[in-house]
Amino acid sequence: MCVGIPLKVLEIQDKEAIGEISGVKRKIRIDFLPNLNIGDYVMTHAGFALDLIKQEDANEIIEAIKLVNSKI
Questions:
Q1: Could you read off the pLDDT of 24-54 as tens digits, one per residue?
Q2: Where are the beta strands (DSSP E) in 1-72?
């Protein structure tokens, strides 16, 4: 099963960015999203930003992840 994780973009440098979810920062590749801006939300998988998503959608997914984690 593949799980995509939404991240908020904090920094951009060339083809890499720093994204954050719940205080955890990760370096991601942004090759597929050439018009990405700081503050955008992206869906990531395996270290790559795959698609832009709305902040509301990102927040909904993050809440679902927290709910699942609380059940484990």
A1: 999 999 999 999 999 999 999 999 999 999 9
A2: 5-13, 16-21, 24-29, 41-45, 48-53
How is the chain split among helix, strand and coil, in percent rounded to 5?
25, 45, 30
Query: Distances in Å between the alpha carbon of 58 and those of 19, 42, 49?
Result: 12, 8, 13
Q: Which fold has domain 5-71?
A: SH3 type barrels. (2.30.30)
| In the chain, where the domains are located | 5-71
Query: The tokens of 8 are what?
Result: 């908020």
